[in-house]
Design goal:
Length: 253
Amino acid sequence: MINRSKYLLLQFNYTYSHALDEISNGGILGFNAGQSILSPTNPHNLKQNYGNSDYDSRHNLTASYVLTIPYWHGPHVLTDGWIASGTVFHHTGFPFTVTDSTVSNAITNYGSRIFAKQLRNVSMCGGPSIFNFATGGGNPCPIVNPRNYTTPTAFGQQMRNQTYGPAYTDTDLSILKTFGIPKWSSANVQLGAQFFNILNHPNFASPSSDINPSNSTAGFITSTVNTPTSILGSGLGGDASPRLIQLKGVFTF
């Protein structure tokens, strides 16, 4: 949806989708780092890998706006030429599979992961209450509750990617002021600031999903994810996710 007015341009998109497959991305470069199942859990039955795709986010919302603030009164050099713009991103979490390396490590020449035995459904696993970066503790995801998952005794005791991690939310803001140059009608200077993740909202990765008793982080979220619009790019991962402020100056003629 696009809404245009004399002063405001607003674009809004919402998508509901459901993606399923046996192995996402052809088993190359897993979409969900450290969580993607890149090869069949059962080498003799690919169907047991069928489930939600690694990138199956059911609800996705994106929006952007450009507001040209109208001149009301006062000196033009101070009150005219202001533009505010921004973006909003939100999507529900990506799925992951609860596994048990206790069993897979005991199998000779086995290169995949064996899914844990599912006793009760745990559909969601996320939110800031699950892990506290300040204390290094918190409440683990209920996948580690033995009433929900346990050591598997055979293949196919759980479908792939049945539990969903935290949702993602981010918003950016840009405020710019345009100054005209006297006696040069075709030129101007634009100064302002851009705020990335202006609310400084942390977005969490999926929790560690291996219920092996020796995995001390099982069920805990131990990292954040980066924003799609960071000025530092995507290579730093969650290190690029805090609020970032960039001063901007543009000269056009």
